Structures are given as structure tokens and as C-alpha cells.
Amino acid sequence: MDKQNQEAKLQLSYIEKCASLIMEKYNRPLRLRIQNEGCQMNSLQTETVAGMALRMGCVRVEKEEDADLVIYNTCTVRENANQKIYGHLGFLKSIKKKRPDMKIVLFGCMMQEAHVVEKIRSDYPFVDLVFGTHNIHKFPELFYHVLMTDSQIIDIWQDSSEIVEGLPADRKYSFKTGVNIMFGCNNFCSYCIVPYVRGREKSREPQAIIREIEELVQEGVTEVMLLGQNVNSYGKTLDTPVTFADLLRQVDKIPGLRRIRFMTSHPKDLSDDLIRAMAECKKVCHHLHLPVQSGSSRILKQMNRRYDKDHYLTLVQKIREAIPDISLTTDIIVGFPGETEEDFLETMDVVEKSDYDTAFTFIYSKRTGTPAAKMEDQVPADVIKDRFDRLLRLVQEKGRQNSCRFTGMVQEVLVEDENREPGVLTGRTEHNLLVHFKGPRELIGQYVPVKLDSCKGFYYFGSLQQEEK
Ligand code: 5AD
Ligand code: SF4
């Protein structure tokens, strides 16, 4: 623990050094544009890098055109996220031509791929700094060297053994936030690049997590989302192993905290004890994201998911018995190599039977370096498109029916934002359903009772109720 604090202290000292250097070189704060691609884990790490940059004296701006420092946190889970970054770089090149003082920083998952780094080195020499997923905490130190040398710096680590605690973050909301409980992934699903770019699974010590949440509560946070690639295997590799169910029970006891969410659960590791903990713990929201990926046991085997269709459906049944009002959501991949019409119909069957509120559907994307990329029988694009459209129709129809099951009820809503239309607020129920309703913006960050008057498919229109005192 001490060493980690040591590292955080070192980086805090580099933040100071950057701050002085920025004033020396620019004589004003740097205008920062930071953009996130990808999952919630990435968003959280983007908030940390933003937090460090703001401490250096940067100020945020909306557009790249106005920025002195442009930072992208990249994703590589699917090819399209990748292409988007190259597109952005073309655009940044033209801005930098006019303003050579501008600094461009790329980091995150995509940068862990050797072919990407090679390409940046050869085709994008105007990028100033590149780092990966394992040395995000080093941003101040690396940026200091960029400011000092004005040359391209690339620093990619293959893995990391330590978890650095205590870095500043600039959070989007003051009342809710994500909390990383673990990093990396050991599952090696055959389509997925995450284990290669995020490294081996590492859990944070429960005490460090509890302490962070207690501090967040002091700062006004009432809802946390515990984040990990597979939270169900949390704690297995710690010196004193802890289960995720026990972590939930500990977090549930933190005074002042109102809601606990978590993501993502792998069906193969979802224990009966976790279902019990979810049912017992008052603050744990009745929402579970349980990616199925495919309904075909044959394809699940090829995907190396280590469960089959029956196991998944039994799990769904068990969860619904223990927590009848649970909202289930999922991820589904269409067009995995070798997927036949029969396999696809099994997926449709799981969607029929599982009653998801929402399902995120993805077209299979071939990722170089994963076992699935070498599989024969890649499914033709037109077949995938047809299946994808059919799946989407079913998902939307079922999602609409399921999300509407609370119509007419009064539920507690955490108010998150004011809509574009002034006087209309947006919040979420514990089931993660969106509700729009009229109310004053002073309610943002508060929990209020709202009657869910009408369901519009994936969201409700509601009316604010008088709070019973
Ligand atoms: N192609 C398509 N979708 C993918 N996902 C992960 N890897 C791929 C891929 N190669 C999806 C999975 C995962 C979600 C985060 O992204 O459904 O649950
Ligand atoms: Fe998140 Fe995976 Fe994308 Fe990395 S590759 S940002 S872990 S979804």
C-alpha cells in the first residue's frame, strides 16, 4: 500500500512541475478537450486523467478547434471504435498545422496493440504522447517530459503489478460515480481483445475500496457503480481472498450511501451467495447486467464462455425467484464465426425467455490476436445484417413490454439532469429506467418520489409526488 501511495505522491509532484512549466511556456492555463471512447471503466479512467490535467491548471473547452491539449481515451473492443480514432487524428492534424503548439495525447486499450503504436509512430508523428492501460497514473510524469522535450513520447507497459491509489479525478456528477474494484480479465472469451489489452485480473483490497467510497460519500456521492470486467471473480487473487458477495455486504453498510450498482457479471461465476447478497442488501439496486453473448450452447463453447444455454436460463430463473422485480440487461454478439441459422434461433429463444429490459446487440468484430480471428466460417455480412435486424426488432419489442411493467407506480428517482427543455428533469429508478418529469433543477442529485404515468418504450414520463414526511 505504501509503495502505491509513494507512486501517487510522485505523480502529484509532477502535476506541480507541469503546472509551473505550463505557466512558463504558455503564460496561461492550457485549454483541455478530453474525449472518452468505450466502456464505463474507460470513462472512469478518463475522469482520472482529466482530474490530473485540471490540477495542472488546465481548463475545459468543448471543441478540439479551441483546445491546446487534446486527449483521447481509446477503445478497441470492436473495429469501428478503432477507425473512429484514425478519423479524428486526420482532423487534428489539420488543426495542429495551424497551431503547432497544440499537444495531442492518446491512451487506453487501443494503444496496447503493437500494430497501432507502429502506425502512430510512422504515420502520425504529430501525436505527442501515447500510453496504454497499465501506466495511466504516469500521465503527469510523461506529460512533463513532453513539455520539456517537445518530441513524441510513447510508453506502453505489458502489464502492471501495482494499483495506484489516491489520484485526483474530475467527476461528471457530484452525486454518483463509478468505483473500480478490479482491473484486467482472465477469461479469454475467444472473440475478445480485453484480456490482451487490459492484462491479468487484479483486485483492489476491500479496505481501499471501502475507504474510497466513504470519502466519496463525504463529498456528496450517494450512488456508486462498482466496476470490473468480471466482478463475480472479484477478490479471488487477493492475499486474503474475499468474495464479491461479501464486498457488497460491506459496501452496503457504509452510512450515507443510498444506491449500489455493479458491472459486469459473468454468468459462469455468478454464485448463489451473490444472488442472496443482492436480495438482502437494501442499497443494492435490483438491476443485473448479465451478458449472454449467444443462446447457442455450441457457439458458447466456441466462445469459451464456459456455460451453456440451460445454465444461463436456470440462472435467470433463480435470480427472478430471489428478486422478482429485477431488471435484467444483456450483451449479445451476432455473427460469431460458424453461427448457423439454428444457433441464431437459440439466441432469439433466450431473448424470448429472459425478459430483458434492454439488450445491447453487437455485430461480431474480428480482433487480430484473438482465437476467433483465426476461425474459419466467418459469417457473410448480408447474413449477419439480416440476423442483426431480426434480433434488434425482438429486443426492442420485448424491451418495451418489460420496461413498461412499472407504469402507474410511484418510484424513487435519483434526479440526474435538467433536459434541454428547461423545467423538465431526468432521473433513474433503481431499475436503471429513465424518467422525465417536471420539477425545479434544485432537485438534481436528490431522491424524489415520481409517479410513472406513461411508458414510452425505454423511458417514462412521470409526475413528481409530494414527499411524505
Ligand atoms: N465483436 C463484437 N462484440 C464484442 N464484444 C466484445 N468483443 C467483441 C467483438 N470482438 C461485446 C461483448 C461484450 C461487450 C462489452 O462488447 O458483447 O460484452
Ligand atoms: Fe472497455 Fe474493453 Fe473497450 Fe477497453 S476494449 S475500453 S476494456 S470495452
How many strands? 19
Secondary structural class: alpha/beta
Mean pLDDT: 95
- Major β-sheet, in short? 6 strands, parallel
Bin the helical content. Answer: 25-40%
**How much of the sequence is in beta strands?**
15-25%
Bound ligand species = 5'-deoxyadenosine, iron/sulfur cluster
Which word captures the global form? globular
Give the low-confidence spans.
Answer: none
**Count of DSSP H/I helices:** 13
What spatial order of strands do you see in the largest sheet? 2-1-3-4-5-6
Rg over CA atoms, rounded to whole Å, is: 23 Å
Distance between the termini: 45 Å
Topology, element by element:
Layout: H1 2-26, E1 31-36, H2 40-55, E2 59-60, E3 69-74, H3 79-98, E4 103-108, H4 114-123, E5 129-131, H5 139-149, E6 153-155, E7 176-180, E8 182-183, H6 194-198, E9 202-203, H7 206-218, E10 223-227, H8 244-252, E11 259-263, H9 272-280, E12 287-289, H10 297-302, H11 309-322, E13 327-334, H12 341-354, E14 358-363, H13 381-403, E15 410-418, E16 424-428, E17 434-438, E18 447-455, E19 459-464
Parallel strand pairs: 1-2, 1-3, 3-4, 4-5, 5-6, 7-10, 10-11, 12-13, 13-14, 17-19
Antiparallel strand pairs: 8-9, 15-16, 15-18, 16-17, 18-19
Helix pairs in contact: 1-5, 8-9, 11-12, 12-13
